[in-house]
Design goal:
The structure holds two protein chains of two kinds. Chain A is an alpha/beta fold. In chain A, 39% of the residues lie in helices and 22% in strands. In chain A, strand 6 and strand 7 form a beta hairpin. The longest helix of chain A has 14 residues. Classes of the chains: A alpha/beta, B alpha+beta. At the A-B interface, helix 4 and helix 8 of A face helix 4, helix 5 and helix 6 of B.
């Protein structure tokens, strides 16, 4: 995947670039907003990773607004030290697709980058999701495994749906909190772990092959192969 | 004109003088003007009557009428003169024809000799058939005298009005400056850094008092904000340094003593975890400061508290069950209010976090909400844990305060601070009490009261 990173802090930029390259992505780096805007507008990228506060007269929000104004729909992930709710809202309103507050764990960034780049297309909404023998019907809102119906609560259904939409990708706890529960803070108790382990029990009871896997220091992943 | 008081005073003077001028002009016109008009009317009436008489009874009748009129004129004001073509006086009390009275039917004024005395007179000439000329007039000397007196009076009163206006203006200016001076002094004091200054308020409750009250409310707010900022910097100074120091010490220690890949890795991982802990504390502090500053009030929106609490209960239901606890809810079908969804959710999550954390296995956690009779809403989170002594109940909510018995459970001591800040942001309060007074253990009940409106 070809990613444009616009970040003025040399150390953060180096860290992110190296990490993304190790995850087999191509990374272009711009150190200020003007260069970033020029690159983003003139070349084709799969994803933009943007700092909010940038030198060069064009900050992250302006950059996205300008791109969106030109009809450029490349997904944008904000990476910012501005963590207040208002700031997050401003970033997303300007046209950002996701917002990650510094300091961050690289695993969190990588998970979000891959989730954004492989977003399900809006044009052809799927009505059925499938991973191995697990099947999710989005219309009747039922879950079947190997033809056997599994009862889940509405919230568990949404949790499972999110995991399955990103099958094969790491989904972090924070992402689940934000996307499934719409929580924009970090509860002290690991509520996500509890919910995932309940869901896992329901799905895997009576089956040899577990589907939901814990990825150490990162989050969860649903995948067919063990 | 640097002084607004001076400008107000000047405006007052102008308005007052203008009003006086209008008043005096009307008065002047109504008196001297009326006199003038009266004379003109009398002359015209006389002329008409005499002309009529001439038409009925000829020259003889006219002379007779003039004679009668002069005899009846006790005030000796009337002036008559009837002349024939040759310039012979046929009747009247005027010696000669005044030079000025040459056009017919119009008024003219002249100084004449009336009974030997010089007098100001006004008269009208009319020509009669047979080349006769009739002059009817009135001696205006006394009226002119009266008019002079009136004019004098008008000038004096105008002068007095201007004087009073200027004095009034000076008084207004002085009063304004006297009322504004304390406010100004307070503002200068504040600008100089003396944040304790307040505008003195009189008992009158007028505009200046309202301005003063507004300023004082503003200053209270500023002081509260300043204290909030100071609180955050204190907290950062004291309580972020501790975990940072701890993390640093551990890293330094492992740098000196760690042997082998495994130990290095463990030390680095521990360091990262410690740093994450620091940023969590940092985020919590910023969130509290955000709520305390009241800046989030702009983001208030209508929300259904019942729905929000159901969501929160749904999240913690699983956590409670994992600990063999029961989580019961008692929520009305709907509980609309205006507030900040994110902050209320986090406050409730913090309370449920605490409740689940301190309730023993098999215990009971309850989440209830209701509308109070005064229109506010109350959220109550009850646990069956060890509870808090009443002194600790009062102190909980202070930043980083942790009751002694909770020292060994994980937590930053910021949870209740946030709850309290969120309650205050919504015009409400946080109160802690025994959940089951008298029972052992008493448990803890956190009552959060929020105002519903904006």
């Amino acid at each position: 995947m070809r990613i444009l990173l616009v970040e003025d802090d040399v150390e953060v930029a180096r860290f992110v670039k190296k990490g993304l390259q190790e995850a087999a992505h191509t990374v272009e780096h711009a150190a200020n907003g003007r260069d970033g805007l020029f690159l983003a507008a003139s070349e084709q990228f799969d994803l933009l990773v943007l700092d909010r506060m940038l030198p060069g007269g064009v900050d992250g929000v302006r950059l996205v607004e300008t791109l969106r104004g030109q009809g450029n729909r490349t997904p944008v992930l904000f990476l910012s030290a501005l963590g207040a709710v208002d700031e997050r809202v401003r970033g997303l309103k300007a046209g950002g697709d996701d917002y990650l507050v510094k300091p961050f764990a690289f695993a969190e960034l990588l998970a979000r980058v891959e989730a954004l780049a492989r977003r399900p297309s809006v044009d052809a909404p799927a009505t059925r999701l499938r991973v191995a023998d697990l099947e999710l019907d989005l219309l009747s809102r039922t879950v079947m495994r190997a033809g056997k119906k599994i009862d889940v609560q509405p919230r568990e259904f949404r949790l499972l749906e999110h995991l399955m939409r990103h099958a094969g990708q790491v989904v972090t706890r924070t992402m689940l909190l934000e996307k499934v529960w719409d929580y924009h803070f970090d509860p002290q108790t690991n509520v996500i772990d509890v919910h995932v382990s309940r869901l896992r029990q329901k799905l895997d009871r009576g089956f040899d092959q577990p589907l939901i896997h814990t990825v150490r220091n990162a989050g969860y992943m649903i995948r067919a192969e063990p | 004109m640097q002084s607004a008081a001076l400008r107000f005073a000047a405006l007052f003077t102008i308005v007052f003088v203008l009003a006086s001028v209008v008043l005096v002009s009307v008065l002047w016109w109504a008196t001297t003007g009326a006199l003038d008009r009266q004379v003109a009317a009398a002359i015209r009436a006389d002329t008409v009557a005499l002309t009529e008489r001439f038409r009925e009874a000829g020259v003889a009748g006219l002379r007779e009428a003039i004679g009668e009129r002069m005899a009846l004129d006790i005030l000796n004001e009337a002036i008559y003169l009837l002349m024939d073509q040759a310039g012979t006086r046929l009747a009247g009390n005027l010696e000669s024809w005044p030079a000025i009275a040459n056009t017919e039917g119009s008024f003219s004024r002249a100084r004449i000799s009336h009974d030997g005395i010089p007098a100001d007179a006004r008269f009208m000439r009319s020509d009669l058939p047979g080349a006769l000329r009739l002059l009817v007039g009135r001696d205006e000397s006394e009226r002119l005298q009266l008019r002079l007196i009136l004019t004098e009076g008008v000038v004096w009163s105008l002068g007095a009005a201007v004087l009073i206006a200027v004095m009034g203006a000076a008084l207004i200016r002085q009063a304004l400056e006297r009322r504004l001076e304390p406010t100004y002094r307070t503002a200068m004091g504040i600008a100089g850094g003396e944040l304790t200054h307040r505008v003195p308020i009189s008992s009158r409750g007028d505009e200046f008092d309202r301005l003063g009250l507004g300023m004082n409310a503003m200053l209270d707010r500023i002081e509260a904000l300043m204290q909030g900022v100071r609180g955050v910097s204190d907290a950062i100074a004291h309580d972020l340094r501790t975990p940072i120091a701890r993390a640093r010490n551990k890293l330094e220690e492992s740098l000196a003593t760690a042997a082998g890949e495994e130990e290095w890795r463990a030390a680095v991982e521990q360091g990262i975890a410690d740093l994450d802990g620091v940023s969590r504390i940092f985020a919590a502090l910023l969130r509290i400061a955000e709520a305390e500053a009241g800046a989030r009030r702009a983001a208030f929106d209508t929300l259904d508290l019942s729905e929000l609490l159901t969501d929160a209960a749904d999240v913690y239901q699983a956590v409670a069950e994992a600990r063999d606890q029961r989580l019961e809810t008692a929520l009305p079908a709907t509980l609309p209010m205006v507030g900040d969804r994110d902050l209320i959710l986090q406050a409730v999550a913090n309370l449920l976090d605490n409740a689940v954390k301190f309730t023993p296995e098999g215990g009971l956690v309850q989440l209830a909400a209701s509308r109070l009779s005064n229109g506010m809403v109350e959220i109550v989170v009850t646990d069956s844990g060890p509870g808090l002594g009443w002194e600790d109940q009062l102190r909980a909510g202070e930043r980083f305060f942790r009751a002694d018995q909770s020292r060994n459970t994980p937590g930053s001591g910021l949870g209740l601070s946030l709850v309290r800040a969120v309650a205050q942001l919504h015009g409400g309060t946080l109160r802690l009490a025994d959940a089951h007074p008298g029972a052992e253990p008493p448990g803890l009940a956190a009552h959060v009261i929020l105002a519903c409106g904006k």
